[in-house]
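USER: If only I could read backbone structure tokens as easily as an amino acid sequence. It would mean a lot if you studied the pair and described how this chain folds. Here is the record:
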Amino acid sequence: MIEARGLTRTFNGFTAVDSVDMRVGEGEIFGLLGPNGAGKTTTIRMLACLIKPSKGTAYVCGMDVLSPDEASKIRGMVGILTENPGFYDGLSVYKNLRFYADLYHMGRQKANRNIEHYLRLFGLWSLRNSPVAGFSRGMRQKLALARCLIHEPRLLFMDEPTSGLDPESARIVRDSIRSIRKEGRTILLCTHNLDEVERLCDRIAIMNRRILGAGTPQRLKYSFGRKIIIRLERMSDRILSILDGMDSVRFVEKEGNSLVLEVEDPESDNADIIYNIVKAGGRIQFVSELGTSLEDVYMKLVGGRLA
């Protein structure tokens, strides 16, 4: 659905996006996670053919973003949810959506059918004749989702869809995104919200002008190793020496009678580790895994900037 190679964008000598390689499969929710200023929105704008890359190539829905003819087709095949969507506040919900449907040259019958479908999907059908001016931010976000879906795009770009929303409104928007996913849409989601990507995304890329790491949330958590805690009845130098000599143990940290070990694969390595501890005279009280959070990975890759 999306394939980018070396995608780069500069503004007056400043490199906002630097040599991004990315592949997003059809039907996938792919998250771009990074701090403010990381180039996420600029990446979306290039992939949606709103601005041209300075270097590199990208194909969206099999078409080249650098080709003027194909770029025009791409713009008609994607939907974009911006961080701060604007509407004609004096118009009703229905008339706002009809306006955008007309921009996509949709026939009246299809436009009316799609408007009803998405307003019902997002719980706004009963408000179709109400002016948008009185809508809360959460309601405006739901309406913005309906608007970016009205022309039945194959691919959706969502830029900080829950930014600034209260918890209830954010949950409503996340539920709406899940509903969209069930319709088979592909979604590229930009955010700096760690919880959001874990809840919604199949795969994520952590970005700070360039891609620093990519994979499923679980794989990224495992990318820096996994830690296990072993509680002993009594610690001894012999146990520490044996563990230091094991290839499967990346490091050992002693905390009283407990050991914190970093290993690559606890499922494979724990049996040998336990065997060697017992062989060295150790009595084990319990063994557990210390989970690595996505925040830990983010901090290591980005360098501590959460926003």
In short: The radius of gyration is 25 Å. The chain has two domains: 2-221, 225-291. Residues 12 and 27 are 36 Å apart (CA to CA). The chain has eleven helices and 14 strands.
